[in-house]
Amino acid sequence: MGQVDTLVDHLFRREAGRMVAILTRIFGPARLALAEDVVQDVLCRALEVWKFRGVPENPSAWIVAAAKNRVVDILRREKTAGAFSRMFLDANADDGMLVEQDMDAMFQPAAIKDGQLRMMFACCHPRIGEDAQIALVLQILCGLGTGEIAAAFLATHAAIEKRVVRAKKILAGSKRALELDPADVVMRLPTVQHALYLLFNEGYHGANPQLAIRVDLCREAMYLTELLLDHPPARTGSSYGLAALMCLHAARLPARANAAGGFVPMEFQDRSKWDQDLILKGHSFLGKSAHGWEFGAYQIEAAIASVHASAPRIEETDWAAVVTLYDSLSRIKPSAVVALNRAIAVGQHKGPERGLEEVRAIAGREDLLGYPFYWATLGEFELRAGRQGLALPNFQKAEALARNPFERAHYSARADTCCRER
Amino acid sequence: MSQFVYFYRGWEAPASPTEMQQQIQKWSAWFKQLSESGRLTDRGYPLERTGKVVVGKTKSITDGPYAEAKDFVGGYSIVEADDIMHAVELAKGCPTFESGGSVEVRPLLVMKS
User: How far apart are CA A92 and CA B8, in angstroms?
Assistant: First the structure.
């Protein structure tokens, strides 16, 4: 055994997700708990052996082989005991060799990905609530522990546990949870996309003060979204659009924190820190998203991110294009937040007074009163219009509503700017 | 210079894959450090939790070992140290303590010529 002694980032988590998905497919959703136990056991054994003997050159293959052996053992034992196992022990599979051949097929990389996709759709079962869907995806597919999920969402361990247990019960009670025909994929795809979108947003804007944890959430959302792109029925224009918007936003992550870990909004970011590989990837996905008639919210949001990604300096942003794109987005997904973003683009394009007019004209503006970004926008426009005195209370409100310490520090600094410039 | 065996006893399995990954990294770092300072004779092996015990003149066989979970020997390594206290000092760097384990340090008994 080679002693590599270094591990790919998140190897255990990735493998946990892959193996639980495929084992649940083999054992059936009713035995999700068995699948989880077996995977936990296999990973623990890997841990014990690798601790002493070093990490093998292909740790992933090691885990797959160990999991497969355990599954074959369990199914053989059940067969001897006369138990019935859903897929492999029917009339024509009663000799051990056949079981093993079928097993080999089940553990091929393509089959594992297929299992993950099925599991992703199962986690987004319509009877499972939105919050629980995301928690379930994170636990089953991303291998996050309850504690880690609780930390990411600033929820208590008990609250997440309760959510996950209830959701798993629904999953385990649905015999056909993993039977996906293309029609199911089409029907449930929007829910899955929405869950991944929320997961990404939680990482991007979330309440957890630790940037590293939030970046992880973004990364998991991107990984799962790319799984959608590997599967024809789920590989739609909107899935490409979702992948594009995640890449183009994630590209800015390295510039969103200053040296002290503080939050830096886009207009103040050092654009040389933007991840050019992710921007390229995002643009490539965006290009592919335009197939057919469908041009939905994800594509538009990606297109907006693309305008920003293409501007070397904020002054060179094509604000007219951004405004037009927000106009389209408002038609598909009218919301006060979209209107606010549109107003910001108008203000950038036509000056702060026009921006303020647009903000004041937002329908349903009262929905924004608890949103720090709303107050910060008013503050920025007032500041730009040279009215420090009017800007100050807005930044103070933004500061009071900030979702994490970094946002708070940023708004506090903007409030200081108003005082200094007065 | 003498040789010592470390018996690792009774650590708790990590609850999440992330913790497992962290443990691997800590153990790798620990062995690397021992090895680079020339103290590591053999990383040793982990041991299965189950086994058999052959006992008495009748050589009767039982399932075993029958220790409590916290007393199970889960693995061993062999190190070189100046004396027992030095070996104990070296053992203090082991990551097993963080997961509730203990290390038993035993000198190899050799005849001094």
Answer: 48
Count other Cβ atoms within 10 Å, centred on residue A137.
27
Query: Residue A172, Cβ neighbours under 10 Å: how many?
Result: 16
d(CA A68, CA A108): 11
Which CATH class for the B2-107 domain?
alpha beta
List alpha helices for chain B, DSSP H. 17-36, 84-91
pLDDT given at position A155: 82
3-class secondary structure for chain A? CCCCCCCCCCHHHHHHHHHHHHHHHHHCHHHHHHHHHHHHHHHHHHHHHHHHHCCCCCHHHHHHHHHHHHHHHHHHHHHHCCCCCCCCCCHHHCCHHHHHHHHHHHCCHHHHHHHHHHHHHHHCCCCCCHHHHHHHHHHHHCCCCHHHHHHHCCCCHHHHHHHHHHHHHHHHHCCCCCCCCHHHHHHHHHHHHHHHHHHHHHHHHCCCCCHHHHHHHHHHHHHHHHHHHCCHHHCCHHHHHHHHHHHHHHCCHHHCECCCCCECCHHHCCHHHCCHHHHHHHHHHHHHHCCCCCCCHHHHHHHHHHHHHHCCCHHHCCHHHHHHHHHHHHHHCCCHHHHHHHHHHHHHHHCHHHHHHHHHCCCCHHHHCCCHHHHHHHHHHHHHCCCHHHHHHHHHHHHHHCCCHHHHHHHHHHHHHHHHHC
Q: A219: distance to nearest CA of chain B, Å?
A: 15
Give the start-to-end residue ranges of the domains of chain B: 2-107
ipTM for this model: 0.92
Which residue in A10, A48, A53 is closest to B21 by CB distance?
A: A10
Measured distance between the N- and C-terminal CA atoms of chain B, rounded to whole angstroms: 14
pLDDT tens, residue by residue, A76-106: 888 776 655 545 544 444 444 456 677 888 8
Counting beta carbons within 10 angstroms of the beta carbon of residue A292, is it exposed (0 to 12), middle (13 to 18) or buried (19 or more)? Answer: exposed
Region of A141 (left: φ > 0; alpha: ψ -120 to 50; beta: rest) is: alpha
- Cα distance between residue A136 and residue A171, in whole Å: 10
CB atoms within 10 A of CB A381: 26
CB A211 within 8 A of CB A203: no
Whether A148 sits inside 8 A of B25 (CB atoms) is no
The phi, psi pair for A55, rounded to 5°, reads -80, 130
Q: Mean pLDDT across chain B, nearest whole number?
A: 90
- Mean per-residue pLDDT for A214-240? 90
Q: How far is B44 from chain A (nearest CA, A)?
A: 6
Are the Cβ atoms of A49 and B77 closer than 8 angstroms? no
CB contact under 8 A, A10 and B32: no
Q: Quick check: B70 and B104 in contact, CB under 8 A?
A: no
